[in-house]
Target: RsmB/NOP family class I SAM-dependent RNA methyltransferase
Amino acid sequence: MTPEARIAAAVDILDRVLAGEPAERSLTTWARGNRFAGSRDRAAIRDHVYDALRRRRSALALSGQSTSSGRALMIGLLREDGGDPGTVFSGQGYAPAPLSAQEAEALSSAPVRGDLPEAISLDLPDWLVAPLRARLGDDFGAAMEAMRHRAPVFLRVNAARSDRERAAEALAAEGISTRHSPLAVHALEVIDGAGRIKSSQSYLTGLVELQDAASQAAVESLPLTSGMRVLDYCAGGGGKVLAMAARAQGTWFAHDADPRRMADLPTRAERAGVAVRRIPTERVAVEAPFDLVLTDVPCTGSGTWRRTPEAKWTLRPERLEELTRTQDDILSDAQALVRPGGALAYMTCSLLEQENGDRIAAFLMAHPSFELETERRFSPLDGGDGFYLACLRRNQAASFP
Ligand SMILES: C[S@@+](CC[C@H](N)C(=O)[O-])C[C@H]1O[C@@H](n2cnc3c(N)ncnc32)[C@H](O)[C@@H]1O
Model:
């Protein structure tokens, strides 16, 4: 496909996404209906679509138009990236149709990037500027600029199987080049060949897992020692429990309010060579107490919006409120499962303090038998996703219910 044909495809896909279809589904549907497109074409189209979704607000402003459409977003994106929309939108071959008189007129009177208001140039909904600035301080501009671009891909080397040097060599032999990430001891950042990971032997045999470096660093901060009984209370696909199990010998339990979310866990655990017991909600109290209970709670995901940019535009204050209530409820349920002297860990992939420090402060007020032991905040400027960890210790003298 020509570069122009890829842009025409991105325009069509973006129109479907703007009409409400999830981006992944639109990309898959397009690929099924256009089998002539090779893997490089599909990757390039995907990049266009995700770039436009991450930079949706600034791209629309730079197009000079007032209503989002696939064409408007790609026109604005091309402009910011130094391309000439008038040349690309030529109607020649498989290029998108030429600019209409109205589009050309809007483009000629559109503002330049340097004149865009801050929230637009940083591609943020207005209501999120204040809380994110409050959290990030002087890093606000740079961190939000980083969020406008593609996230790096990280692998976690399974410490139970290998070390970073040997894993990097095995990956290189399969065409995947990596470098050590300073963020976490077992993290490799993928430089080239990310598309080959899931079919590589290194991945299929459990030598490496896909996992963001900030998540890995947070797991490294957990007070894990061999022989512990550990519950991952919001286990989902099991990313955290597998990372914990790679660090220490222990008895590993996984729970999720929606057990279907744990469907892949047995396969992943087998690949990694660890045993994880899934337990239904009614068995959790029977298995308690635990030495460590991890709550990797549902959140806005504001630290991962580079990967899921649609979520940035659909989040509403009411949903944030609802999530903070769920987070409080989970902490309150999980604390009862911790043995006296044991630990309760709380994680989010959010940059918003309402979901992070504020929740822990509220919890500590209501539960004086716990004290804060460790707190870590990661922003995209650290290299990985935005992430938060708080580790709380239950008073030794507290009684177990
Ligand atoms: C952020 S995801 C967990 C991701 C997972 N730990 C990982 O590393 O792959 C949050 C999970 O919490 C689960 N969840 C939501 N409400 C819950 C509750 N009240 N109790 C336990 N789990 C809950 C969701 O089903 C979801 O799978």
